[in-house]
Design brief:
The structure is a single chain. With about 220 residues, the chain is mainly alpha-helical. It has one domain (about 10-205). The protein has helices at about 10-35, 40-65, 70-75, 75-90, 90-95, 100-125, 130-150, 165-180, 185-205.
Length: about 220
């Protein structure tokens, strides 16, 4: 019988839930900041918060067959996204005053949480390790890509210093750890730390993947 129709181990299921919810909260605030800096009204802020917080997870769930997606099936996800977006809007003066370094750390933390949750959930549904790695990456960057499409700009997550690559590395660490018998919690912590550290180092030192400069 496929893993997708068998009960999930409580500890692994809890890791996915906690990482997903905390990542949702973090990315909802980040989405609200992007919307407010684009001079959107309250409705626009709420929509962008929802997209950034849940876009990657919805894409992942649809691809692995976890339907309906958590954003639809579990009220906590949209409620948390809208709540955090609303809080950011109400306290916009304080939120918009956050330093660039604070926003980078916040974003890196959300990326790490979603990369771990995405890869682990894909594994829970019997997805192959390589594809599960891609699902972790998509979970981490999907919301940001959708946000930039809505705001009519080239996705920032595909241009910044090792952004998607950091999510990919975090997912790889999780999957390798699980394959090597590392306990779920320890594997999740190692993977999240790897993603977070690589993202912060890439920003600090300007690390980038090779790119072709158009003429």
């Amino acid at each position: 019988m496929r893993d997708s129709v068998s009960p999930l181990k409580p500890r692994v299921e809890k890791i996915v839930l906690v990482a997903d919810l905390v990542g949702t909260a973090v990315f909802a605030v980040e989405g609200a900041i992007s919307a407010m800096r684009s001079n959107l009204d309250l409705l626009g802020v709420m929509v962008i918060s929802f997209i950034v917080a849940l876009g990657g997870g919805v894409t992942r769930d649809l691809l692995i067959g976890a339907t309906p997606p958590n954003a639809v099936a579990d009220w906590r996800y949209p409620a948390l996204a809208f709540f955090m977006g609303g809080v950011a809007f109400v306290f916009h003066q304080q939120v918009l005053g956050w330093s660039g370094s604070t926003l980078i750390v916040l974003d890196a933390a959300g990326l790490a949480l979603f990369a771990v949750a995405g890869a682990q959930k894909a594994l829970n549904f019997g997805i192959s390790p390589f594809v599960a790695t891609l699902m972790g990456t998509i979970t981490g960057v999907g919301g940001g890509v959708l946000r930039d499409i809505v705001l009519a700009r080239v996705p920032v997550v595909l241009q910044e210093d090792l952004y998607a690559s950091s999510a990919f590395v975090g997912a790889v660490v999780l999957i390798v750890g699980r394959r090597c018998g590392v306990p779920p919690v320890a594997a999740a912590l190692l993977a999240g730390a790897a993603c977070l550290l690589l993202r912060l180092l890439s920003v600090n030192y300007g690390w980038q993947l090779p790119k072709v400069i158009g003429g």
